[in-house]
Amino acid sequence: TCPPLMKSMERELHCPVCKEIVKQPIVLPCQHSVCLMCASEVLVANGYPPPELPPEPYSPASTPNTRSPRQARRPMPKAEQRPIDRVLRAGYGTYPGRRRKEAPPLVMMFPCIPCGRDVELGEKGLADCLRNLSLERIVERYRHTVSLGSVAVMCQFCKPPQALEATKGCTDCRASFCNECFKLYHPWGTPRAQHEHIQPTLNFRPKVLTCPEHDQEKLQFYCRSCQRLLCPLCKLRRIHAGHKILPVTQAYQALKVGVQDSDVWTSVAAREQLAQSVRDLTAALAERHASLTQALEAARQKRSEALAAQVAERRSLMEHAGLMAFTQELLKEQDAPCFVQAARQTHNRLNKSIENLQCFALAADPSFRHFQLDVSKELKLLTELHFIHAPLAPVIDTQRTLAYDQLFLCWRLPQDSVPAWHFSVEYRRRGVVPGGGSRGGIRGGLAAARWGWQRLDEVNGTSAVIDRLEMDSVYVLRVRGCNKAGYGEYSEEVYLHTPPAPVLNFYLDSRWGLHADRLVVSKEQRCARSVPGLSLLQAADHALTSCHLTSDLLVGDVAITQGRHYWACSVEPGSYLVKVGVGLESKLQEWFHLPQDMASPRYDPDSGHDSGAEDALDSIPPFCFLTMGMGKIYLPHPSSPAGLTYPLPPRLGVCLDFEKGRVTFYDAHSLRPLWEGHVDCSGPVCPAFCFIGGGALQLQELVANLVNYLLS
């Protein structure tokens, strides 16, 4: 490479923090590189514990014994100096081989300057960041090509002031030698003579990258979905199940070809492509011009032939003028028999001639007025001809995007965006603080290990389904479009919270004493509606005197006997009163055989929380319901005997922990807990719904069923 080109790339070698040429660079999760020392200082400035770092490579602490081997005997140089990656594995505030057990580690957030945002490092901090050996090699070549005014590398085994300039460096000894010292410490015929020697340097690198989590394991694989290097042990993890994993040699060839192709694509190539496009347009216009000219010539020839035929026919008609003269002479005949004999034939010929003259018309239009071209639309397209652009950032449809048994992401392109050939969906899991809240702030909270971005490539359409998710976790999702111009901008990130327990899929059971005159269950048994018919009118008439209303109970077709389960439903805002919850199967069966009247729609004696008297009992209630209606939801509160009311959420989530006998109600859209109650789990427990007055309820469909419905 020529020196001017090397000089021009100096800006690419600068650290974004110190603005100097990088030294011991590490790769952040966002793929930007920064000096190890700079990264440590930034983390300390943000309140994190200082990491244990190796000494500066040019400092006295890193220099071997300086006694000259020519003056006295001295120990051989150690091949096992502390490498940077070994130190990084130790983490922050710990020693190699020891792990702190007092408290879970913090997930560190690094403020990346080029990204303009905080980058999640994970619980190990810089230990998860690999060393950028490629950048180090480029910096090394740059320093040897462009004079930076730096001092020469001196032999580390000569005693000053007789120290000589180093001529060789040993990657195994991790030291620089002059010729005499190199021969002394690498005797011929010994294993040290096989050491690899390089140019003298002050910054020795490991020969190969090793896994930061599995000591001495080489990074032999590349995960395209996570965009991370893997060792054989990391490859076996469940997080990479179903991902496209390539041998690192294959990924090396593919990426190198891509980089070379990108490097070739200069402005000269762009101009050539522009000229070729113009030539293609010119050739297409010339071809179209030739075809239209040929069509016009064919039409002219056809009309000429038709007009020539008619001219000949006209001339033949003009020959009938002799017949008219003959007729005039025949009219002068005085002999009647002779006239009659000649006139009959002449009369027939004359009538036929007159008929032909009256029917004659031009069969071909000699005008070519309709052979005109309207090129206004094409001229407008040509004037608007521009270079192609990548698609604009998609807009995520938050109303249709949801997390249930799977993640369903739906988006659209802005109206002024160019079309996209396909989309790339990226997602990652964020740590969740114990108790349900998501991590916030620059330092984060107590969380699980870091998850990198995972990707779904070449997604056709404007929706995607993501499965194999962790429960009770927050996922960050984003999407971008791609066309011939490349990838466009990312959409705004959207955060989805997965359910706290496995999703329970069930149907409404219509076999339990369903009152068909008051309750209507859909054919799919996923929706129920309370019809305000004659029975409700009669109940309303009784309410004027006895203050009683009719209630109807509906249960799910499953009985829960163990584990934790979650399901969701939506209640029509115009419903009068609807109760959603769970109950003992045996008690629910008893309820079906009892009179279906109760004293108040708000204070149900069978409810798990609506009755204040039940709170004073030691026994656990057999039912636990949450009441909603008229666009509101009623939440019991210990400080308010009458409870509190809030706006009705679009979807209500229910989570049953059978072993603990606990029921938690959520706003299913945000997974925000609304209220928690207890229920007797001494027997099978069923999802239950109670209607008081008119109302409607819809069970949440599984994501797969929802996608099939949208596609149909």
Automatic annotation (TrEMBL):
Domain COS per the UniProt entry, residue ranges: 331-388
Q: Which residues form the B30.2/SPRY domain?
A: 486-708
Which PROSITE patterns does the UniProt entry name for this protein? B302_SPRY, COS, FN3, ZF_BBOX
Q: Which domain of life is it from?
A: Eukaryota
Protein name listed in UniProt: Tripartite motif containing 46b
Which InterPro entries does the UniProt record give?
B30.2/SPRY (IPR001870), B30.2/SPRY_sf (IPR043136), ConA-like_dom_sf (IPR013320), COS_domain (IPR017903), E3_ligase_FN3/SPRY (IPR050617), FN3_dom (IPR003961), FN3_sf (IPR036116), Ig-like_fold (IPR013783)
Show the PANTHER family listed in the entry: E3 UBIQUITIN-PROTEIN LIGASE TRIM36-RELATED, TRIPARTITE MOTIF-CONTAINING PROTEIN 46
Classification via Pfam families: COS, zf-B_box, zf-C3HC4
Domain Fibronectin type-III: from-to ranges: 390-501
Q: Region (Disordered): which ranges?
A: 53-83
The UniProt family comment states: Belongs to the TRIM/RBCC family.
Residues covered by the B box-type domain: 206-248
Q: Which UniProt keywords apply?
A: Coiled coil, Metal-binding, Zinc, Zinc-finger
* Cellular compartments per GO CC: axon cytoplasm; main axon
